[in-house]
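Worked example

This section walks through a single chain of length 393. The input is the sequence exactly as stored; nothing has been trimmed or padded.
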Amino acid sequence: MAASHEIILVAGVLCLLAIFAGLLSARVGTPLLLVFIAVGMLAGEDGPGGIQFNDFHAAYLVGSLALTAILFQGGLSTERAMIRQALWPSIALATAGVAISAAIVGVAARWLFGFHWQEALLLGAATAPTDAAAVSVLLHLSRAAVPSRVTAALEVESGLNDPMSVFLTVGLVELLTAPGGLHASSVALLFLKEMVGGAAIGLASGYALLGLFRRLRTERSVFPVVAVGGALAIFGGTQVLGASGFLAVYLAGVIVGTHEHAAREPVTRFFGALGWLAQIALFLMLGLLVTPHELPPLVLSALTVAVALIFVARPLAVAACLLPFRWSPQEVLFVSWVGLRGAVPIYLTIIPLLAGLGMGQTLFNIVFVVVIISVAVQGWTITPAARLLRLTA
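Given that input, the structure is written out below as tokens.
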């Protein structure tokens, strides 16, 4: 009983510290996600807090719950105009863009560090997705006046690109753990189950949840509870069926958020707060999970990966995907620069650890440092980048 009470106390204190530290840091333009991670690291085993937390099974569960809330909230906040303006560019970035970025980072890791091809590509797959929370939060806090289709493409892409990264990560982990058991037909089947299955379940579940909201006659305070249960059921059920719960819960949020019904306002307001709580919990947990004294030997390697990702892989992937849509060079460069990494890449590296891969801990530490560099460098420079490229709303 005493241990349970102490855990509750620590969770509340860390949450409050993260919020107040974020409010103070916002005055000097520090990305909030860095603050949340820093608070977690200070509370961890190498910091003054001294909390030892290395349970990756619990981390995967907490991460899945947090991302369910974040992605559903991201879908709720996606407007019809955003979908009309940037649906196809976003789909291209979320599929082909992720694959191109993963391949380029994989080639760089193979050439620079001598990783095996599967390990190098696994590093590329983990670092490929942009983060819905990081992109949305930092875009809004930066107040950068950019064309609406650019903002729409960045936000919709960040909500859609997780399934492709999960597909690549899971496929490569299976290839490393069972080299002879993965064939072209099984890869194609896995892709169809992840993408097509996730999209179909998400759209069907979204309309089912919408129908429930339109028929349900109850107090307004009950609607958010129904939405939470629905989001969790959609994510968990889709994952159990072998499809992408990330894609399904995001699309379900889009359906619920872009149609009129009595629950729309209370559900949107509730998930706005729940999304923030999920982000704080996720980044605090990731900060606790890392062991800072293990990072210095890997800083140079992570810095090299970050440079390859930010200045080579992301720009080439974005240019290739947006070329058919005739976007201006300034828009392409801005979309390239705001490809922020966040919690999702770190979360993905938990999968190799749970699979028992020997390089899992090294991969986790490298990706953790890459995310810190991405949020710090790109997050701090969104507004100057928009001004430099002379983008205006």
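What to look for: The mean pLDDT is 87.
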